[in-house]
Write a structure and sequence with these properties.
223 residues, alpha/beta, Rossmann fold, seven-stranded mixed beta sheet, 7 helices, 7 strands, globular, binds S-adenosylmethionine
Length: 223
């Protein structure tokens, strides 16, 4: 019996490594049943909403895209930071995540959040609509990151900010150099770097005067 234990441990570690490598090669979005992976006291301590909201430089009245919002860990604090006239668009590709968010919005009586079920890079976003775009623990889950970068560039108003936050230990963790490599080709320029290990944030600006990039022809203004 005791001889089985080391083999079982080796098997579990092997499976964990295989899962980790598979996720690096072919990322899939975090399943809704695993939200405890990013909604827990440890993540709260290093990348809580207060810190990330501060790094975004929000002001009342801003239009903000919470891209890959999940169940809304950050969406509700963002919504409060831009009240009374600002609005959050909460985008996620998974319906079940957005359903969790809807329940939370109702419970908290938040009315300035618009929900958008869509994949990043698929052309669902309006152009030049946002003052801030937030990508917290999301970029590594997106398969076509360059298409996402182009879409987010087009969705930001000129001169406004894309903020990317990553946490070490996430199987989808992107190093700062990889994030720059993936989003700068869209035309962004790095303007701020906060934090380091285990959580960092890079803020990129869409320059005021460069030409906009083309997203898919279906890209439309909504609302
Ligand atoms: C790790 S969760 C982070 C949630 C939230 N940003 C936070 O910090 O609490 C990543 C979220 O990104 C979403 N996501 C992953 N790939 C996506 C894509 N291509 N388009 C839109 N959402 C995506 C997932 O469904 C998931 O809800």
């Amino acid at each position: 019996m005791t001889k089985i234990v080391p083999y079982a441990l080796i098997g579990i570690v092997g499976l964990a490594i295989a899962g980790f490598l598979r996720q690096r090669r072919q990322p899939i979005p975090t399943p809704p049943r695993l939200t405890f992976l990013f909604e827990n006291p440890l993540v709260e301590a290093f990348a809580g909403p207060e810190l990330l909201v501060e790094r975004l430089g929000l002001a009342p009245g801003m239009q903000v895209l919470d891209a890959g919002c999940g169940p809304g860990r950050l969406t509700i604090p963002l919504a409060r930071a831009v009240e009374p006239t600002g609005e959050i668009v909460a985008l996620d590709s998974q319906r079940a995540m957005l359903e969790k968010l809807e329940h939370r919005l109702e419970a908290e009586n938040i009315t300035n959040v618009r929900i958008l079920e869509a994949g990043l890079g698929e052309g669902a976003l309006p152009r030049e609509a946002f003052d801030r775009v937030l990508l917290a623990f999301v970029l590594g889950e997106v398969r076509d990151r360059e298409a996402a970068g182009r879409e987010l560039y087009a969705a930001l108003k000129p001169g406004r900010i894309l903020s990317v936050t990553e946490i070490f230990g996430d199987p989808d963790y992107r190093r700062p150099a990889s994030v720059r490599h993936e989003v700068e080709p869209a035309g962004f320029e790095l303007v701020e770097h906060f934090g380091g290990f285990p959580v960092y944030t890079l803020n990129f600006r869409r320059p005021e005067h460069l030409a906009t990039h083309k997203t898919s022809p279906e890209a439309s203004d909504f609302g």
